[in-house]
Sequence to fold (227 residues):
Amino acid sequence: ETGVTQSPTHLIKTRGQQVTLRCSSQSGHNTVSWYQQALGQGPQFIFQYYREEENGRGNFPPRFSGLQFPNYSSELNVNALELDDSALYLCASSRGASGYNEQFFGPGTRLTVL
Amino acid sequence: QKEVEQDPGPLSVPEGAIVSLNCTYSNSAFQYFMWYRQYSRKGPELLMYTYSSGNKEDGRFTAQVDKSSKYISLFIRDSQPSDSATYLCAMSGTGAGSYQLTFGKGTKLSVIP
Fold:
């Protein structure tokens, strides 16, 4: 069983640019959640996709957007990058979208905004 | 007040010690409690998952939940240098917004040989 994978591993962008991060969910999982983890902090929920629809969103502005594809892989897009967007971006997949579904994380993409 | 409070440490213990990690929370809707281990510059790895109050044991790890006190713990017995990592508690609930995990800040643990 393949685990959650993310690409790229690292990314350096400048302020104002746009970035796309990718996530492949674990086999058998139909739900992907994205989290932002700043240095020294716990992950913060960005949004969740369930069966290709956004299922819920945390306290992040609209310049954070996403997609989920028919194979349940997902993208996170961030427009108009700001310095504070520098963080580790994590995706987690699960078998369903309920609170009791265990979420399994990928290795993350480290984004640096200069 | 944050929904989940976790002492960030750092916590340094000798090899073989018993480690106790704790989180408190304020949201009564939380029903599912997890502990994740995160090595430096890696993604979190699910260690323990418990539902509501009670204890759960898995090898050297024991997770404890006390819903009346809104307090959860993770105990590590016979700690090893390979246990050196950041430990994150996480919680989710039922109803609206139940899908998201709410994390503590993480406790950085070092086990000294």
Observations:
- DSSP finds no helices and eleven strands in chain B.
- The interface with chain A takes residues 4, 6, 8, 31-32, 34, 36, 41-46, 49, 51, 88, 90, 92-94, 97-106 of chain B (CB under 8 Å).
- The two ends of chain B are 37 Å apart (CA to CA).
- Residues 17 and 36 of chain B are 20 Å apart (CA to CA).
